[in-house]
Amino acid sequence: MTDKKTDAFGDALRADLDIMAALGVKAEGVEIAPLVNGTNLPGLPESVPVLLKRGTNPGIEDISRLFEPYRQFPARKVGQAVAQTFASFCDLTNRHKTDDSVIFADADWRNPSLTAVIDYHQNAPAGEAAFGKHRVHYAFPLSEEWKKWIEMDGEAMKQAEFAYFLEDRVAELSSPTDQERTAYEQQFQTKIAMPSQVVELSRGLKVNIDTKVKTATTLQTGEGQIAWEEVHNDADGKPLKVPGMFMLNIAPFFMGDKVRIPVRLRYRPVGAMIMWSYQIYRPDQAINEHVRDTLAEARDKTNLPTFEGTPEMSGG
Prior knowledge:
The chain is of the alpha+beta class. It contains eight helices and 15 strands.
């Protein structure tokens, strides 16, 4: 009888000791526990796992750093892919797009572009914010000829500089149509030059590179007239007639269609010489029209909403 009581007591004691040992381990040990987002802060999960430390130095630690060395793929897509062709832009956008992706068109005529924001904000009013860090960008490839004309637009050039500038770009000039001549000459009250006249102008400028300005007048016909003092025997001293405008026939975009754009021609005496410049009339019109047409095509090819403008800076 005594032995049975002793065995029962021993069993109970061992059970109590096991429980106490387990509690001791738990009191001094660590465990992974959920940290609950009890206040439902927007944009955060309901809970995150943390390392809960017990014992004499209790605390909470982030455990994500323990997993990072073993990550097999990123947490989210980030970065901006740069497409070199419009077709590639559409293909990449279709490859990654979601229900919330959008396309923006920046119609800045000097640097036009398309940007698809793949992880864009969800639709209002109840839509959640997104990071906006995954994008596809396409910069419209401006032609080298167009970039050169734009680079020197409005820039004052000395006589020699302007002469060689015109001579190198004669192929980009065009004769005005009857409709263009009537409209622009009436609008600007000046004469439009034929390409041959622009060539003649450039050659006349080269002849008179080392001469001094004698007179510079504007005639009632809408042409300017410049006469030089003779300092050498290469020029015949006749006044040079200067048209007030000429026509460009040029493709603003690489391998694109050509457009016709009027260009104002200006000059002014500066001491003993003439300074020349030109001003392209509304260069933004040709660019904006092309960007809008391409944006409409992108909308058709991707079935995404499109906007004219630039997207917000990417979020954190």
